[in-house]
Every structure is written in C-alpha cells, then in structure tokens.
Amino acid sequence: MAAIDISPEKDGGVLKEIIKEGVGDETPAPGSNVIVHYTGTLLDGTKFDSSRDRNEPFKFELMKGSVIKAWDIGVATMKKGEVAVLTCASKYAYGKTGSPPKIPPDATLKFEIEMIDWKGEDLSPDNDGSIEKYRITEGKGYTFPQESALVNIHITGIYDGKEFEDRDVQFCLGEGEDCDIVEGVEKALESFKAGEKSKLKINSKYAYKNIGKPEFNIPPNATVEYIVELKSFEKSVVTWSLKAPEKIEQAKIFKEKGTNYFKANKYSLAIKMYKTVVSLLDYAEDFKDDLKKERDDLILSAHLNLGLCYLKTDQNVEAKDSCNKALELSPQNVKALFRRGQAYLGLASPEIAIKDFQEVLKIEPKNAAAIKQQAVCCSIMKKQLAKEKKVFANMFDKFAQEDKQKEEEEKRDQPDVMNVTLGEWGQDERPGGRDATEFEKENPNILMLNNGTDEFKDM
Question: Is 134 an annotated catalytic residue?
Fold first, then answer.
C-alpha cells in the first residue's frame, strides 16, 4: 500500500505505509496506554534502535508528549495487529539538534511499528486500571468540572454487550449517588472537557461492588461499561476566593444538603456534605466577631453530625475522631460525649465508653439514654470479667495438672529408698546377703544405705 500523508497540516511531515492490516475498526484514543514493537532506521537503512532486539515491547501513553510528535500522530491511526512504516520529517522527530550520537541533526527517520494492544487511559486513584477511559469525541476548552460542579450528561450503561440504561441526567459532581451514578463515572468526569464523549470501562470496585444491580441483571463483582457525554457543566464555587460571609452561606447550603441526605438514609452523601462544611470553615482566623460564633456553631454541628453518620455506617474510629473535634469546641457537649461513648462501645471498649456516659449523667442526671448505655457497659464488663475468670481458672487447672504430671514423672525417674529397702531386697533381707535382725524386721524404716556401703548409719 502506498504511503499517505497523515500529518495534521498535510505538509508531508508524517507519511504512513501499511505493511499489514489490523483487525476491527477501533484505534487508540488519546491517553491510551499503547503497547508496540518498533525498529527505527535512518534513511540510509542504518538501524539506531529496536524493541525487538531487546525482546521487550515498548509501552507509552498516547498524546501525552512522552514520544516524538510523529509517533503520537501515527500510532493514533493504528488498529490492533497492524504493522506500518512511518516516515517522519525532522520537525516531527528530533528536529535540528537530533539525538546524538545515533541520530544526526535534521534527520528524517523511518519506524516500522507493530500495534500489539492498548488499554484505556487509567483514571483510577490507585493506578490499578479499575477505571479506564477511551475517548470517542474530543471536548472543547481547557477546563474540567470539579467537586460540586453542576454537570449535564448523557449516559449509556452496557453490561455483557447489553444496554441497561440510557438517559440524560443532571447533578452536582460528588452527589451522583443520589441519581444512581456510580462512583467510577463521577471520578472520570473530572477529566472530561465540555462536549467530550468517551467510553468508560469500570471495575466493580467503582461500580456495583460485591452487591451487583439485580434490576439490571448485573451480578456481584461485575465490570461494566458506560458511554458518557458531558454536554455542559457549570463551574463550582472556588472556595479560596470566597469572603467569610460567603463561606458561611455556602456552609449553610451544604449543611442543609447533608441533613436531607441523612433523612433519606444516604449516609455517604451526608458525610460528603458535612465534610465540605468543615473544609469551608476550617480556618478560624478568617472569621471575626459575630461571624466567628456562627462559624463555630456550624462547624460544631458538622462534627456532631459526622459522628452520627459514622456511627450509622459502623465507622467507629471516624465517629470517635469527629466527636473529639466537637469536644475541642464544646468540652461539655452532651451529644459529643454520648456519641463518643457509643463509638467506644462499637470498638469493644466498654471500660472507656462508660466514662463518657457517666460524664453525660453528671451534666444531665436524668438522661435516660445515657442511663441505659451505662447499664449496657456494666453488663458487658460483667460478662467479660466472668469470661476472664473462667479462662484464668481453666488456665490454672491446666497448670496444676501439668505440675502434678511433672512431679509424678520426676518421682518415677528417681529411686525410692523405701522401695529399695523393702521391695527390691525384701523385708527379711539386708544388703550384703545377710538376713535382717528381728529388730530390723519390726522397724523396717530404719534401714538406710550408708554412702553406698552395706553398713547402717548411726541412729
């Protein structure tokens, strides 16, 4: 096949000649992690580099500036299994300086490239490939939606080759759960430009986890795909640019959202909202006079509500920490003490928890909930004590049996004087062969060996 000009400016800078056709219709999208074999030569045929000689395929991220410009252009047009030769003019390769000592200045280069495979752009937080993006349509502009931005998307969900949802949806980024948007889609949207359309491959870790989605016939631990188009988005408020009164107003909005999510039993969303309140009001020095009191009240409320949400989701360490922060602001706060006590109970520490409930009762002696929880602590500690006593009793019995067995073994291993005197030689005999006297017969216990001889000790 004749070489064709694939350079964006059609200036002959990148010529492509297909040696072997690839399979399918797909080509790697920008950001894809491609795997290729290649051999690079000068125009006179001098080879300067080859992955085949190293017997190790070359991997790189497409359109990320990690390779020469001609490669980003040429490899983006290749299908799986395709082999092509790229002829790259100097300005699309190493330019006027070249790459000494093998590539001279202003050199035109030839690369024979085999497209082995590619994976999508890895957007997963742990870089483990659990969220992959394959761009279909390039977006416009230079900005991306951030947390809390209002996004307007069209989403199509696919599992096992079958479409399970197709809809338009609008939501604030970070609150997608409220609209049944999986976490992986939200994380991916942070890399979208307005107008961009991409295919997402999302592992169960960021999709439906080990639960699945029965109404869509999606089993537990399933990988799903989405085609997502970001139709538009409104920029979120840049919190660092807000003045103190504006931060207060934003904090009130997020607190109300958190309360609504809590009432709807959407605790993870409520946690996000209350944490946003805390981050907005984190720097106390920004607030003066009446605003400081309002700020302190809001942040105290946020920590208290976080403690409650964490308790609801069995995150007891986090609940304890939130209550501690609330108590730093209000040391005698009954809710903070009570919830911290509950957290300690959840952490199997009733001996610590009871102290918090006792503190509550010092402040509110008739607090029924604290009285009940104090009783729960006492009951648990009583059961623990009884269990420990039983364990120790069994332990001591075991030790006693072992000691008794050891004594018996030691006794068996040592000679018994009585048995030697009365048993081995007989009651009517003495060492040396002579018969025992009548006195010795009547008083057998006086028979003793004297330094290994047959003579009696002086009595």
Answer: no
Rounded Cα gap, residues 282 and 153, in angstroms: 32
**pLDDT at residue 441, as a whole number:** 54
Per residue in 399-449, pLDDT tens? 667 767 777 777 676 655 444 443 333 444 444 445 555 544 554 544 443
Q: How many CB atoms lie within 10 A of CB 146?
A: 15
CB-hemisphere CA count at 13 Å for 434? Answer: 7
Is 208 assigned a catalytic role? Answer: no
AA identity, residue 177: E
Phi/psi of residue 34, each to 5°?
-95, 150
Q: What share of the chain is helix, strand, coil (3-state, %, to 5)?
A: 45, 20, 35
Q: Which amino acid is at 314?
A: D
d(CA 302, CA 294): 12
Q: Are 338 and 374 in contact (CB under 8 A)?
A: no
In this prediction, residue 283 carries a pLDDT of 84
- Identify each DSSP E strand in 120-260 by its residue range: 121-122, 131-137, 150-159, 162-172, 197-202, 224-234
Give yes or no: 216 in active site.
no
Residue 399: phi and psi, rounded to 5, are: -60, -40
The one catalytic residue in 48, 60, 164, 216 is 48
- The catalytic position among 72, 73, 103, 111 is 111
Mark 268-304 as b/e (b = at least 16 C-beta within 10 Å): ebbbbbbbbbbebbeeeebbeeeeeebbeebbbbbbb
**Active-site residue flag, 111:** yes
- Does pLDDT of 366 surpass 50? yes
Q: Both tokens of residue 357?
A: 């409930």
pTM greater than 0.90 (yes/no)? no
48 is known as an active-site residue: yes
Measure the CA–CA gap between 106 and 98, rounded to whole angstroms: 6
pLDDT tens digit string along 51-91? 999 999 999 999 999 999 999 999 999 999 999 999 999 99
Active site residue 153: no
Instruction: Name the active-site residue from 94, 159, 226, 357.
Output: 94
Residue 319, pLDDT score:
98
Residues in the chain: 459
Report H helices in 211-288. Answer: 244-263, 267-280
**Would the pLDDT of 455 be above 70?**
no
